[in-house]
Design brief:
The structure holds two protein chains of two kinds. Chain A is mainly alpha-helical. Chain A is 43% helix and 8% strand. In chain A, the strands form four sheets. Chain A has a two-stranded antiparallel sheet with strand order 1-2. In chain A, strands 3-4 form a two-stranded antiparallel ribbon. In chain A, α3 runs parallel beside α8. In chain B, α6 crosses α7 and α7 runs parallel beside α9. The radius of gyration of chain B is 18 Å and the shape is globular. By secondary structure, chain B is an alpha/beta fold. Chain B is 31% helix and 21% strand. The chains are: A mainly alpha, B alpha/beta. At the A-B interface, α10, α11 and α22 of A face α1, α2, α8 and α9 of B.
């Protein structure tokens, strides 16, 4: 095989997996083309489900599998894909980084399309650096932290990070921009333009989200993504070389790779073209040993070498690759961080004492300790939620739960029979429940309470039953009692006052969402009463 | 869709704030067939009819009953002409399966659309500014499937389709209106009959709350006048109240089959007040005890005395 052919093979593979990733990301939504056959509603329970295997890349990701196993002692759905990737890495090295990883591809493109470094500067940048040990530090910290019960892999796992960045920052931001543009065009009083605006929105909405999608901390997620892309100007594939914990895991596994780069020192003219094109800073050049653990298998060196001094060959025996240059300090530092993070994360008392009232987890979420062992903070539940209520937490879940999902009822509400978030969760942090189970058990995510000082009828500001009207349970958890009030003018009026029956309330938050008292509604939902917690309860009988 | 309620097209507002102040000017600019309320509301004093369709035989076809009811009124051709753009306004505001009677029966919806297409309608739109998110509503209520089967357009409610218009009511002056409902040649109001915590009942006139955007949840502070204002603004060609299954308690959202009574009735009427008054009877509620029905009569929208309309019974 010629080097050029291998490069094209890699590009095709990269393009395919990036396209697949984007396709599955877009499909992580309320399936708009699936309408339930209504005649069946009279006889059977039907649940709306996402029609594509949207968790595929998470199943492919060994770090997701390993941390879920170490932390939550759970074999996640489809983990055999990840096992397969690890086994192939043992044979081939970091093929995942070079051929599959969509985030690697994006970084690759960012570094290659308009490289800022040229000539000697690029050759210098592609020399192996001490900073490439940071990824081992992060890997050790993540794995140890997982063993000790806090799974933070998703913060830095490339699949989670890429999905989160696109789904919670790039797509919603574009969606807002497109929506703005469509509204302006639709607002022009020229019929064809008008129609164009409507049509454009019709096409864009299913991809970028309906209306104005909003994401708490979206600016931060997007900012971090841009910074990571920018780092490629300092060194190509900076993220993959120095920061990626999955890359580090695969690097460790690639020690015994039988696919090896072999150098012919006699043919080499020391032109450095291999180093100039090297994506992983894996020492392809003469005089030093090739680093199988750093090599991203881009095959650039193979293709660029004018003297054919570099070849890739299968060598069954004996495997003589250089071990991963982890660095003792990186490992020790990782161990220290890995011990510290879980214990520091629990210091806020969220787990052991009282949970933040704002921390409302999606329906079907497992108990908080278990949740923090499994949640990858990937954003799938947030992307799929049709009402935009699930958002990445900033402080609600404490440091340990940064960017885990929480429900913000002023942005959306939990649709009474919808269970899509559990349907797409890749690790089971949100269990897959049926709509029937959610309604009949019921699965509560919190409890509503009235703020009588704000409530219009309670505070003497006239009639309003909006919360009662929207309350989805049967019988309603919000009920009305008539009351005679004396107005400022001395006249008496009969008015209906809302009350919340905590035994019936499931915490869906539609009351808070629809309350006419904007900003800080007169009826609000707190996490207390959530089914998943034994401790976080209000009533004696539950 | 909360975002619609929060963003009643501010840019457009800015673009032609002046125009919006004068409703007739807006109409002139857009060329839409918007009725100005004063001239549009000519109560049909003599031509009032009410068809009471009853499905009695076991396993009768709801679609067939719908057809019979329209036939009794002279056929769909009486309401829809060849080449018309027809908009159907069902109540599909809640993401509920049709067995829970929170939304218009999809069989009725399907039959009405098919009849209108048969009568020569060029385009039929299904339009409702839903309360729950529209996608869930379309999927669960059956409206999505109906659109797919019949070829009608299901309009996704969104802020660009909400346009400030002169309601010129006693309570509502300028309010964002869901454009497809006024952009049509013919309007068929297709509500489901339910009880309601504040309005007592939600029938035909109340259905027009789903025809507007903006801060809808503030309308409850003067709900009866708001309903009457909107019922005056949206003048439907005909109203068909779906009472195949009605919600007798826990309305308007329901959520359990225990809240549903199977009535097997359809009420077709060209008099919105009479239609609501008749449907109130199905709940054993006197129209005089329903605030907006009384108010509608008082303000000249029609009579709730059923003697003012010609009643016909259709039994299947």
């Amino acid at each position: 095989v010629k080097g050029k052919q291998l490069i094209w093979l890699r590009r095709i593979s990269q393009g395919f997996f990036l396209a697949l990733f984007l396709f599955l990301l877009v499909q992580t939504r309320f399936p708009g083309d699936i309408y339930l056959e209504y005649s069946l509603a009279f006889t059977t329970e039907q649940d709306i489900r996402v029609g594509y295997p949207v968790t595929f890349f998470f199943q492919l990701d060994p770090l997701v599998w390993l941390t879920s196993l170490l932390s939550g002692h759970v074999w996640i759905k489809g983990f055999l894909w990840a096992v397969g990737v690890l086994l192939l890495t043992l044979l081939l090295g970091r093929f995942f980084c070079g051929f599959v990883c969509p985030f690697g591809t994006i970084n690759h493109m960012a570094g290659v399309l308009r490289p800022v470094l040229r000539g000697k500067a690029m050759i210098d940048a592609n020399q192996k650096k001490g900073s490439q040990r940071i990824k081992y530090f992060l890997l050790v910290a993540i794995l140890l932290s997982a063993i000790l019960g806090l799974n933070i892999a998703g913060l830095l796992d490339p699949v989670s990070l890429f999905f989160r960045s696109l789904a919670l920052a790039v797509f919603p931001a574009l969606g807002n921009a497109i929506k703005d543009a469509c509204d302006v065009i639709a607002g022009i009083d020229i019929k064809p333009l008008n129609m164009l605006g409507y049509a454009a929105e019709e096409i864009a909405s299913p991809i970028f989200g309906y209306g104005y999608p909003s994401v708490a901390t979206g600016w931060f997620i997007g900012g971090l993504f841009l910074v990571i892309l920018f780092l490629n100007r300092i060194r190509p594939r900076f993220w993959c070389r120095s920061l990626c914990p999955l890359g580090a895991l695969l690097a460790v596994m690639s020690r015994f790779s039988i696919l090896r780069l072999e150098k012919d020192p006699d043919a080499c003219t020391d032109c450095q073209k291999c180093t100039l094109a090297c994506q992983g800073a894996a020492s392809p050049g003469p005089g030093v040993d090739w680093d199988s653990s750093e090599c991203l298998l881009c095959f650039n060196c193979f293709a660029k070498c004018p003297e054919d001094a570099i070849t890739f060959r299968f060598r069954w025996f004996p495997a003589q690759n250089r071990g991963p240059d982890m660095g003792r300090r990186a490992v020790l530092g990782g161990l220290l961080a890995g011990v510290s993070i879980p214990f520091l994360g629990r210091l806020d008392g969220q787990i052991h004492k009282v949970s933040d009232p704002r921390l409302i987890r999606p329906p079907g979420s497992v108990e908080e300790t278990e949740f923090l062992k499994l949640c990858q903070r990937c954003g799938l539940c947030m992307k799929v939620c049709p009402t935009n209520v699930i958002n990445p937490a900033l402080t609600e879940a404490g440091m340990a739960g940064f960017w885990t999902p929480t429900l913000i009822m002023t942005l959306g509400y939990c649709e009474y029979t919808c269970t899509l978030c559990g349907n797409v969760c890749p690790t089971g942090a949100i269990a897959e429940i049926s709509g029937k189970e959610k309604v009949e058990r019921p699965i509560r995510i919190g409890s509503a309470y009235l703020d009588r000082g704000r409530c219009l009828p309670w505070a003497g500001n006239g009639p309003c039953i909006v919360c009662e009207e929207h309350c989805p349970t049967s019988p309603k958890a919000i009920y009305l009692r008539p009351d005679v009030q004396t107005g400022e003018d001395g006249k008496t009026i009969t008015i209906q006052l809302p009350y919340v029956d905590l035994k019936r309330c499931v915490g869906c938050g539609i009351c808070e969402n629809k309350c006419p008292v904007k900003g800080r509604p007169a009826i609000r939902v707190i996490a207390a009463g959530e089914t998943r917690s034994v401790r976080n309860q209000i009533l004696l009988d539950i | 869709m909360e975002d619609i309620m929060d963003n009643p097209i501010t840019r457009r507002e800015a673009l032609k704030k002046g125009l919006c102040l004068s409703g007739s000017l807006v109409v002139a600019c857009t060329g839409w067939p918007v009725h100005t309320p004063s001239e549009a509301w000519a109560v049909e004093k003599n031509g009032g009819f009410l068809i009471d369709g009853v499905g009695q035989s076991p396993g009768y076809s709801v679609q067939e009953l719908t057809k019979r009811v329209f036939d009794a009124a002279g056929g769909m051709g009486k309401f829809v002409s060849k080449g018309d753009v027809v908009v159907v306004k069902p109540n599909i505001s809640w993401a509920r399966a049709p067995n829970l009677a929170a939304t218009t029966n999809p069989d009725v919806l399907e039959a009405v659309i098919n009849l209108a297409f048969d009568a020569g309608a060029k385009k039929i739109r299904i339009a409702d500014n839903t309360i729950h998110n529209a996608q869930s509503c379309f999927a669960l209520t059956g409206a999505g499937m109906v659109a797919k089967k019949t070829g009608a357009d299901l309009v996704h409610p969104r802020s660009s389709l909400m346009r400030d218009m002169k309601i010129q009511g006693r309570r509502l002056d300028v309010w964002p209106v869901f454009v497809p409902l006024v952009e049509a040649d013919k309007v068929i109001n297709l509500p489901v009959a339910k009880v309601h915590g504040l309005c007592e009942l939600t029938l035909g006139m109340k259905n027009w709350i789903g025809g507007v955007g903006g801060r809808r949840n503030a309308l409850h502070q003067d709900i009866h006048q708001s309903i009457v204002d909107l019922a005056r603004f949206f003048k439907p060609t005909v109203t068909l109240i779906d009472a195949i299954r009605i919600m007798v308690r826990n309305g308007p959202s329901g959520g359990s089959e225990a809240d549903v009574a199977v009535m097997n009735r359809l009420i077709l009427c060209n008099e919105p007040v009479a239609a609501d008054a008749f449907a109130a009877g199905l709940f054993q509620i006197s129209p005089e005890s329903v605030g907006h029905i009384v108010l509608a009569q008082k303000q000249g929208l029609g009579q709730f005395e059923l003697s003012t309309v010609t009643q016909t019974k259709v039994i299947l």
